[in-house]
Design a protein that fits this description.
Elements lengths: L1 H9 L10 H12 L7 H17 L31 H4 L40 H4 L10 E8 L2 E11 L17 E3 L10 H7 L10 H4 E7 L5 E6 L10 H4 L40 E4 L29 E2 L10 E2 L32 H4 L17 E2 L8 E3 L3 H5 L4 E4 L7 E3 L5 E3 L1 H10 L1 H6 L11 H13 L9 H25 L20 H9 L6 E5 L4 H14 L7 E6 L7 E6 L2 H10 L3 H13 L4 H10 L5 H13 L9 H12 L16 H19 L12 E8 L3 H14 L1 H4 L9 H5 L2 E3 L4 H14 L3 E8 L22 H6 L2 H5 L3 E7 L17 E3 L4 E2 L2 E2 L5 E4 L1 H7 L9 E3 L1 H13 L5 H20 L11 H12 L11 E5 L3 H17 L7 E5 L9 H10 L20 E5 L13 E5 L10 H8 L4 E4 L28 H13 L1 H5 L6 H4 L3 H5 L6 E3 L2 E3 L8 H6 L3 H10 L23 H8 L3 H4 L21 H5 L5 E4 L1 H8 L18 E3 L13 H11 ...
Parallel strand pairs: 6-7, 10-12, 11-13, 14-15, 17-18, 17-19, 19-20, 20-36, 21-36, 25-33, 26-28, 26-29, 27-28, 29-33, 43-44, 43-46, 44-45, 49-52, 56-57, 56-58, 58-59
Antiparallel strand pairs: 1-2, 1-4, 2-3, 4-5, 8-9, 11-16, 15-16, 22-23, 24-30, 31-32, 34-35, 37-38, 39-40, 40-45, 41-42, 46-51, 47-48, 47-52, 49-51, 50-52, 53-55, 54-60, 59-61, 60-61
Helix pairs in contact: 11-14, 13-15, 22-47, 23-47, 30-31, 31-32, 31-33
């Protein structure tokens, strides 16, 4: 050392002294670790040269000095991991792709590969694949003694290459005994005997830029799994290094919560860092592959390891390896190392910086490899190194001894955060320090920032430098206030912002300057160098009054740490909170660490590193071992009168004999006497009746629409149509109160009755079947649920997971899950295979804090998330209610200045006491201290209120206020109603202690009947005393002697302290009488968003808002918590900043928080005047008491007397009551400035919680004038919440955008940030946007149940039947999902129901009874001979033709009364009557029905290709049209067997027809044709169930323009596409073409089968023409007692269409019938209609048509309406038989779209929006009338229906004189009757001789109508004629041909046309009068 310093001083120097010595000494230190084995002279020479070179160079970076040194001894010490920098091979990081671009390449040159060999990555030079993924399942032959290992290639980072290596050259489990050298074989080509790793690496194409080292590239052992496939096994443990995987170097954690040491166990120097191989739940000390230590102390640290997204643990299998223990190092003991010799050190180039940390950015990641390892707990001392050499450890490997009495002296355990570079070993009293890798990880993550930007082409942009990181960290620490704790999230954001700013300037630079091959280190100013760093850091810290202390080291951190420990012991760092140790001497990089020495900060940080389990364990340990006794002893010394207990006993004895003490139980006796008299006077008390709020209904409907959208999607994941009912199971956390609360909700909601799950009188036992508590017994109950769902496939089961953020532990990725069945229970049950795959289970997660279910791996699709709606949108109240929700954002808002009263407060005197005691008892956990202090405060407050006023000095103002109001509130109410105080004690053992202590004090003070103390434990129910039980029963009018309150809600009005324990609330609701929510004991170190919001959610509340809101209250702020993060949306910016930054900085401003720190605001000066707060001695340091501001009192006195009076009656100034409280008229004077305003609110804060301000007898002036029940205010005002100061600051501070700080915390313990390079949440984000944010930026930890989700191979990973409902706490989610179950059930019933037309048959009375009935009542089929004798019934009975013209026959008598008068014209369009029917199993369905059975029928089966179909043209000529008709068939492949082709795939020849003689019951013989338009979705074309699965041929007849859409919806149906000329035609055209095509096909089939020897008459001639709305078919069963008997009973039942068709097709002599039909169903059908089995009458809707017999009878292709009546009349007149089976009926569904409704008549002039009325459908020829865009025929039919009286005035209501209609039936409206005659020769017509007609209608008459034919009929004088023709020419010809002018008189003006343009071919009319 002397030599060196001389050498340094003598060297020529032009530099400042501070520049170099550090570096030099550092170098020597490193040299010394080689125990003097360097060549000394050579060393000096090199050192000289190095120094000279660095002095001459312009760069500030010192040059490396080992560039020309070689080490002599073969057996030198292997550098302790992370200690020495020499061992270069350890430092080069594989996997980072070599060096970054700006670093000169390493001088190592690879040999060029031989000519012609393979150089592909992943293949050997012989071209064989070596990648593990490719050859994992191939058999590999390996010689004995060889092992298969995986090599990593830098060019293939995601692959392992398989190699066979002699295991003697590999290390043993402890990392040593590996022989030097190498021996391996290539498993690809089989080449053996590679003796050099260099040679081998060339052969397997590793393509290295650095010297090949087996240690660096042989990474993993390969093992065979259960299936025999090779998989990646444990890491190869070279030299005891832990896992130096690339991922870990990127940094393992990014949050401030970390698995720490269990401090109670034996010491361990470093707390664990999660490594790539660890599951976070693994014991931290368990290194994954070998020799790291398993330290017993660490097994308890089951922490949530915080993996950075990129390196989340991919190496799970490692966990199972053997763990080996490591001895503790002695303080500075002699280290003896044994092991095989190492190879020599390799050379460094003189030019380059050290290869490991030369100026490239990831330098920091390559340090201290034991850190990367993640789980190291002990240095690998005594394991590695030469056998014989022993030497003292100095320099960088030197351990630092932790002083023995550190904790005793410092009063806190320092927390040391590793920063950059090496961290020295610690030894000695390791129990008294905590070492954390959090900061190191944070630095690493921020180093990787720029990677996220590389995709934008910014690859040259550098990450933030280490120096800059450290400097920013110092700046950050400097600006922290004394009561603030550093947060890693803050630091990450600072780095990110800093980087972004420099990044912007760089981008500009790049745009201006030409790109350079190696751009300089960018930045607007010269970067901070390591030389400047200590100076700059010192400068930054100089302004902070020594709260940040900088220690600069000369050669290693060890020196700085020792210095720090020395200063701590000497007490010189008493004011210092943070010590920053910097060692910036090495060539290009720095070493640093930061120690937190502030007692407050260190305590909080070290406790925050405990997991909840460890926290409980620690507290338990302290309670069990009696460590806390010292605390109790200390308390007893505080009291001047001696021990508090002595004081209590004294008080007890004094008051024992008295009935009442100074504060008598008068209120209790008073209320008791009232109870007896039965006239309690309190009106404020009422339990809320169960009702659904508009909010809940809206959410239930949202849920329902999401379920429907799952069902509607094409994925077929949910077939709602197949479910008949709903069942459910609600899973809740194991809390007895939540369980009872949920049972209560289910019971009172009536949902069980509504779902039909229970009959009337549901018992509690029955309800319990539907609620599952997730405890040990859950599994059996859940199994029966699954079994139930399996057995009832037609029931939809909704599995509701309430409080779903609780227990997301994975059952798979968990070490303990096998041994402990309660671990991962939710995962085990809700994510089991049966639930996931059951098609009838929908899972609904319900939670207020959905964040842990919104990760990158979540199972819930973002489309299946339902967020609670905001109540306000743009100032409009969407859900008007008399109650407003008051949640987190409203609480935060109440703290903003300008608001009347802060509902969130902290207690400064309590915090001060805790801090003081924390220093006095450094070994106790702060939770214990806080609990004891708070209990002490409550005890003292109770004593003070009971008359021991001297005790007021031993409590805080807040606690005194709470206790006063608690004890006094029952006195204000005639019934004794009081308020509830919630005291939250998360740790159960502490809660028990608190309960015992408070109960003891209460008993001693004789207050047992004043208020109850309840211990609320999740595991047990509620127990309360008899006295209070009696009171509750009286209040709630309960007679039941056995009744006990089972939920907190039933404690309404009970004065009580509820000690609420359990680590997390489980969704328990609290009553409205809750006035104080005391959260001062919540674990303030658990800074996670879910945990914070969950605790604050306890106070969430509905506030009555019957009266108008205060003026000042802004309604926008009521937006629900979840919907907007911040409530301060419209707040002025200055308010926001004032409340956050400025308040922190200036002590003056912080005084202003009169409203924040309720110590100063909560008691009025009057109330506290009798007991001035003195100085209280709180341990060694005096705790300053906050006094009430003196100005508070007068401000109230200053009010007008009347106003003051009112205020007192109401319990304080109006500003006290929350801004939502109604009904208080006096407003604070608007002239008051906000400063005064705060003071106004201050005096009354004491009364905020209840009606009684005063409690002390001395405080007389404030006694209320009128007593008022505390319940009255309870409805109007949310509770007051007390928080720990740390949490208060976190919740109320906001960032620059106004976002509360709490919202940007890590969302949940079980997730981690995917990257520190993430944007901030924004204040204006809605819940949906927040969800997307978390889905992008968070990933689950390995212990989270969603962790393995992406690995399942599904691309999207979402579960299709899983929904997530999130909404603020206590807002009514349970009611909403129960309501959802109700409306879901109603909808399913509605889905299984259908509206069918239900109308009586019309014109029954016009039938005249005669002998024309079919009297064989029991015939199953008509008897042909009998039937022929029946006359035809011309009258239309179908109710849809109620408005149609009556058809007269000779049966009508002229005297028949006028018909059609009962309907007014405006009723024409009145909705037809329908009935709702339940669908039977034989119904026809539309496209929305998907059940398993008909998937294949529909062509949607997922296993099948979407059905292919082919288009076939089919042409036939038709003489009447005078042209060939070209039709197209679309025939799916699956239906081709119904057709005949010329050859396979050839010309379509015909459609196969069966034989009349076929008797098979397997199929329906008649092909069914369904013409349809506009009903591709709603038409009932799915006949699978209607046909009962029988084979049938069904053809949809569609228009050409609709072909594509029908084909899309019905891919497996045969389509018949009409020619394009029929695109605007009506149903007549479809019927016409169906019939013509069918006849043509019959001819073709006859010809084809004749060749097979079959007679033509044996081919089946029938087809079915069915409407697209026929939904179900019924049959009437008749029980007639004999043929002629009067007794006739019948019943109707649903049957399949198959049954009906096979019955009809089996009719004897069926081919003699032309048309067969059935009745239309009606509920009003009478026995007379079904008495006769058959009628000869009109048939409609569903007809069986004989195309052979009707060959010459055509449908009218032009018709739109009544074409079936027209056709029926033609068929009858042709002498053919029409038979209606009266005992079959068809139900027609009401379909509101498509069909004839799809024809709209509009004007051709587009700009005329006027509706066109029927009177305008015709006009005079050549007029200027507006032409209409509609077919002429439609206009004609519509006109005649509405206005035919213009043509036939005499016929109106003249039933006896009908209009004669020749060859056609046109509807002339209901008030005109017609008589149909056919002009065909030999046709059957009615006898017209006795008719005198009032008109004649000739419609497109053909040549059969002649003049002689018309002469046969008689007309009234003045009867009218209407002739209709295609054009004016044929009109004239017809008049001439029929000699009409002989009897009829025509005028020119009597000619009309339909209102069509010429190109639309209008129809022309001529009218005339009979002469």
């Amino acid at each position: 050392m002397i030599q060196l310093s001389e050498l340094w001083l003598s060297s020529p120097s032009s530099r400042t002294v501070s520049d170099w010595p550090k570096a030099t000494v550092r170098v020597v230190g490193m040299g010394n670790s080689y125990a003097g084995q360097l060549k000394t002279t050579r060393f000096e020479e090199v050192l000289h040269n190095s120094i000279e070179a660095s002095l001459r160079s312009n760069s500030l970076v010192p040059r490396p000095i080992f560039s020309q040194l070689y080490l002599e001894a073969e057996q030198q010490l292997s550098a302790l991991e992370g200690g020495s920098r020499v061992d270069n091979e350890e430092e080069e990081e594989e996997g980072d792709g070599g060096l970054e671009q700006n670093c000169p390449p390493n001088p190592y040159q690879m040999h060029p590969p031989p000519e012609g060999c393979c150089t592909t990555d992943g293949f050997c030079q012989a071209g064989k694949d070596l990648r593990l993924v490719s050859i994992s399942s191939e058999p590999i032959d390996i010689p004995a003694g060889f092992l298969l290992v995986g090599a990593k290639s830098p060019s293939l980072p995601d692959h392992l290459l398989v190699c066979a290596v002699d295991k003697r050259f590999l290390p043993d489990d402890n990392g040593h005994n590996a022989l030097l050298g190498f021996s391996g074989n290539c498993v690809g080509c089989g080449k053996k005997g590679f003796c050099y790793f260099t040679e081998f690496s060339n052969h397997i194409n590793l393509k290295l830029t650095t010297q090949p080292k087996k240690q660096k590239h042989l990474k993993y052992y390969l093992v065979r799994n259960a299936q025999g496939a090779l998989t990646k096994g444990p890491l190869i443990c070279w030299k005891g290094s832990e896992f130096r995987s690339r991922q870990a170097s990127m940094g393992a954690c990014s949050s401030s919560l970390f698995p720490p040491l269990d401090s109670s166990g034996p010491p361990a120097p470093f707390p664990g860092e999660p490594g790539p191989g660890t599951a976070p739940s693994a014991p931290l000390g368990a290194p994954q592959a070998g020799p790291a230590s398993e330290h017993p102390a660490l097994t308890a640290a089951l922490g949530p390891a915080v993996f950075n997204g990129k390196d989340s643990p991919k190496h799970q299998p490692l966990v199972k390896n053997r763990l080996s223990a490591v001895p503790r190092p002695s303080a500075l003991g002699i280290l003896s190392n044994s092991g095989p010799p190492k190879k020599r050190h390799k050379g460094w180039s003189p030019e380059s910086p050290s290869a490991s940390d030369g100026g490239y950015p990831q330098g920091g990641g390559h340090r201290a490899k034991y850190e990367s390892a993640g789980v190291t707990c002990m240095p690998q001392v005594g394991l590695v190194g030469p056998a014989s050499v022993t030497f003292p450890v100095v320099a960088s490997g030197e351990p630092v001894s932790v002083p023995d009495n550190l904790l005793k002296i410092c009063k806190a355990k320092p927390v040391i955060f590793k920063g950059h570079g090496n961290f020295p070993y610690l030894c000695g009293n390791l129990n008294d320090v905590v070492v954390s890798p959090l900061l190191y990880t944070c630095y690493q993550n921020s180093q990787s920032i720029s990677r996220a930007y590389e995709q934008y082409g910014a690859s040259t942009i550098q990450p933030i430098s280490e120096e800059m990181q450290l400097l920013l960290t110092v700046y950050y620490l400097v600006q922290l206030a004394a009561d603030q704790v550093p947060l890693m999230e803050d630091l990450e954001q600072i780095f990110l912002r800093s980087w972004r700013e420099s990044h912007l300037t760089e981008i500009r630079q790049y745009q201006q300057a030409p790109p350079q091959p190696f751009p300089p280190v960018p930045g607007a100013v010269a970067p901070v160098t390591s030389a400047q760093l200590p100076w700059l850091a010192g400068l930054a810290a100089s302004s902070c009054n020594d709260s940040v202390h900088i220690i600069e080291c000369t050669y290693s951190l060890a020196e700085g740490l020792s210095e720090m420990f020395r200063l701590l012991i000497e007490g010189k760092l008493a004011k210092t909170n943070y010590v920053v140790i910097i060692c910036a001497c090495r060539s290009a990089a720095i070493d640093s660490c930061i120690a937190v020495t502030g007692k407050y900060q260190a305590r909080i940080l070290s406790e925050s590193l405990l997991t909840p389990a460890e926290y409980q364990k620690e507290v338990n340990y302290e309670l069990v071992t009696g460590k806390v006794d010292s605390l109790g002893a200390f308390f007893s010394t505080l009291c001047p009168e001696g021990d508090i207990d002595i004081l209590l006993d004294k008080f007890h004895q004094e008051n024992q004999g008295l009935v009442s003490s100074s504060l008598t139980a008068s209120s209790v006796t008073k209320s008791a006497s009232l109870d007896v008299s039965g006239a309690p006077a309190c009106t404020s008390y009422h339990l809320e009746p169960h009702r659904i709020r508009p909010f809940q209904l809206a959410v239930a409907q949202k849920l329902l629409s999401h379920v429907c959208s799952i069902a509607d999607s094409s994925t077929q994941n949910l077939d709602l149509g197949s479910f008949e009912k709903v069942d459910f199971l609600i899973c809740i956390p194991p809390s007895e109160v939540t369980y009872q609360q949920t049972l209560f909700h289910v019971w009172h909601s009536g949902v069980l009755l509504e779902l039909g799950l229970e009959k009337e009188h549901v018992t509690r036992q029955r309800v319990e079947q539907y609620v599952l508590k997730l405890d040990a017994e859950a599994q059996t109950k859940f199994k029966s649920f699954l079994q139930n769902s399996f057995q009832n496939p037609h029931t939809l089961f909704v599995l509701i997971h309430d409080h779903a953020h609780w227990d997301l532990v994975s059952a798979v990725h968990n070490l303990y899950s096998q041994s402990d069945p309660s671990v991962g229970l939710v995962d085990r049950l809700l994510n089991c295979k049966e639930v996931k795959e059951a098609p009838n289970i929908v899972t609904l997660h319900v939670t207020s804090f959905p964040y842990a279910l919104q990760t990158q791996h979540t199972l819930v699709s973002p489309y299946n998330e339902i967020h609670w709606p905001a109540s306000y949108s743009d100032g409009v109240d969407l859900y008007p209610e008399n109650k407003k929700y008051f949640g987190l954002s409203e609480f935060i808002e109440s703290t903003l200045s300008g608001h009347s009263l802060p509902l969130l407060r902290y207690d400064s005197s309590f915090e001060a006491m805790v801090t003081a005691l924390g220093k006095r008892f450094p070994r106790l956990h702060s939770a214990v201290i806080r609990t004891f202090v708070l209990v002490q405060h409550y005890a003292a407050a109770m004593m003070a209120v009971s008359g021991l006023s001297q005790m007021k000095n031993y409590t805080s103002v807040e606690t005194l206020e709470i206790t006063q109001n608690l004890i006094n509130s029952p006195k204000q109410c005639p019934c004794g109603h009081g308020l509830m105080v919630l005291l939250r004690v998360p740790c159960s053992p502490l809660a028990a202690v608190a309960y015992e202590r408070l109960a003891h004090v209460r008993a001693r003070l004789a207050l047992e009947e004043h208020f109850e103390i309840i211990l609320g434990n999740p595991a047990s129910g509620i127990t309360i005393g008899k006295h209070f039980l009696k009171q509750l029963k009286v209040w709630q009018n309960i007679e039941d002697a056995e009744w006990r309150p089972q939920t907190y809600l039933e404690l309404e009005g009970l004065p009580c302290i509820l000690i609420f324990s359990g680590m997390d609330p489980h969704g328990e609701s609290l009553p409205r009488s809750l006035r104080y929510c005391d959260l001062r004991l919540i674990n303030s170190s658990c800074l996670v968003r879910t945990a914070l919001e969950q605790e604050l959610g306890l106070a969430a509340y509905f506030v009555s808002s019957e009266a108008p809101l205060e003026k000042g209250a802004r309604t926008e702020a009521l937006e629900s918590d979840a919907e907007k993060l911040s409530s301060t949306d419209n707040e002025d910016e200055e308010l926001v900043t004032e409340g956050s930054t400025s308040e922190k900085r200036s002590p003056v401003k912080r005084e202003r928080s009169c409203s924040h720190d309720s110590a100063s605001s909560s008691l009025s000066s009057k109330a506290s005047s009798s007991a001035p707060c003195g100085e209280s001695s709180a341990g060694p340091s005096q705790v300053e008491r906050a006094r009430s501001p003196p100005s508070c009192g007068p401000s109230e006195e200053a009010r007008a007397p009347g106003e003051r009076q009112r205020l007192r009656a109401a319990g304080g100034p109006p500003s006290v009551i929350s801004r939502h409280s109604p009904g208080l008229t006096p407003q604070p004077d608007p002239s008051l400035k906000s400063g005064q305003r705060v003071q106004v609110s201050a005096p009354s804060a004491s009364s905020s919680g209840s009606a009684s301000s005063p409690a002390l007898p001395a405080a007389g002036p404030l006694v209320l004038q009128a007593s008022q029940c505390s319940m009255t205010k309870a409805c109007r005002q949310p509770p007051v919440v007390f928080l720990p100061k740390l949490v208060y600051d976190m919740v109320t501070s906001t960032d620059g955008s106004g976002l509360p700080k709490a919202a940007s915390l890590l969302p949940s313990h079980s997730v981690m940030w995917a990257s520190s390079f993430r944007p901030l949440l924004s204040k204006t984000m809605t819940s949906t946007e927040q969800s997307l944010y978390y889905r992008q930026w968070t990933v689950p930890r390995p212990g989270h149940m969603d962790y393995g989700n992406r690995a399942e191979g599904r691309v999207d990973g979402f579960h299709p039947r899983r929904l997530l409902l999130s909404g603020p706490p206590q807002i009514g989610k349970t009611g909403a999902y129960l309501q959802f179950l109700s409306i879901l059930s109603r909808m399913l019933i509605r889905l299984t129901e259908v509206d069918v037309y239900d109308e009586e048959e019309i014109n029954i009375n016009l039938r005249e009874d005669s002998d024309w009935h079919y009297l064989q009542l029991s015939d199953p089929w008509p008897d042909l001979e009998l039937f022929k004798k029946l006359p035809f019934d011309y009258i239309i009975h179908d109710p849809k033709y109620e408005d149609a013209s009556l058809i007269c026959s000779h049966h009508q008598s002229v005297k028949s009364e006028d018909r059609g008068t009962h309907r007014k014209p405006e009723d024409l369009y009145v909705r037809r009557q329908t009935a709702r029917m339940r669908l039977s199993k034989f119904a026809a369905y539309n496209t929305y029905h998907h059940c398993e059975q008909c998937h294949q029928y529909m062509g949607f089966h997922p296993r099948y290709q979407l059905y292919e179909s082919t288009l076939h043209a089919f042409a036939f000529s038709y003489s009447m049209l005078g042209e060939e008709i070209q039709l197209h068939f679309i025939i799916p492949k699956s239906k081709e067997h119904h057709f005949v082709f010329s050859q396979p795939g050839g010309q379509l020849e015909s459609m196969r027809l069966p034989l009349v003689t076929d008797k098979s019951h397997e199929y329906i013989k008649s092909p069914t044709f369904t013409p349809t338009t506009g009903r591709h979705e709603h038409g009932l074309f799915n006949l699978y169930h209607a046909m009962d699965g029988a084979s049938h041929l069904h053809v949809l007849v569609v228009k050409e323009y609709e072909m594509a859409i029908y084909k899309k919806y019905w891919p497996n149906h045969i389509m018949l596409v009409l020619p394009s000329i029929f695109n605007s035609a009506g149903v007549g055209a479809a019927h016409f073409l169906i019939k013509e095509l069918s006849y043509h096909n019959l001819e073709l089939e006859r010809n084809r089968q004749e060749e097979l020897g079959i007679k033509p008459q044996d081919i089946w001639p029938f087809i079915v023409i069915s409407d697209d709305s026929c939904v179900m078919w019924n049959v009437v069963d008749v029980d007639s007692g004999g043929e002629r008997s009067r007794e006739f009973s019948w019943s109707e039942r649903n049957v399949s269409l198959k049954h009906i068709m096979q019955h009809i097709e089996a009719s004897p002599n069926i081919t003699h019938y032309a048309l067969i039909g059935m009745r239309k169903w009606s509920s009003k059908t009478g026995s007379h209609e079904v008495r006769e089995p058959f009628s000869r009458c009109h048939v409609h809707d569903f007809i069986v048509l004989n195309v052979d017999l009707t060959q010459n009878v055509q449908y009218n292709q032009n018709r739109f309406m009544c074409d079936d009546v027209d056709f029926n009349l033609r068929v009858h007149s042709a002498g053919l038989l029409l038979c209606r089976f009266n005992r079959f009926s068809v139900m027609k569904k009401q379909i509101s779209v498509g069909g004839h409704r799809s024809f709209h008549i509009t004007s051709k002039v587009s700009d005329s929006p006027m509706a066109v009325v029927p009177a305008q459908y015709i006009c005079a020829p050549d007029s200027k009338h507006t032409f209409l865009a509609a077919p002429a025929q439609l206009l004609l039919e519509k006109f005649l229906q509405h206005h035919s009286h213009r043509f036939f005035p005499l016929s109106l209501k003249n039933l006896g004189h009908p209009v004669l209609s020749v060859d056609c039936y046109l509807n002339l409206g209901s008030q005109i009757s017609v008589c149909y005659v056919s002009s065909r020769p030999h046709s059957l017509n009615i006898s017209c001789s006795d008719f005198v007609f009032s008109g004649l209608l000739l419609y497109l008459c053909d040549s059969f109508v002649g003049a002689s034919f018309l002469k046969k009929f008689h007309f009234l004088k003045g009867a009218t004629l209407c002739v209709i023709c295609q054009d004016r020419n044929s009109l004239r010809q017809t008049v001439v041909r029929l000699e009409l002018e002989d009897e009829w008189q025509f005028r020119l003006r009597d000619e009309f046309q339909t209102a069509n343009a010429k190109e639309d071919r209008p129809l022309f009319f001529l009218t005339g009068r009979h002469i």
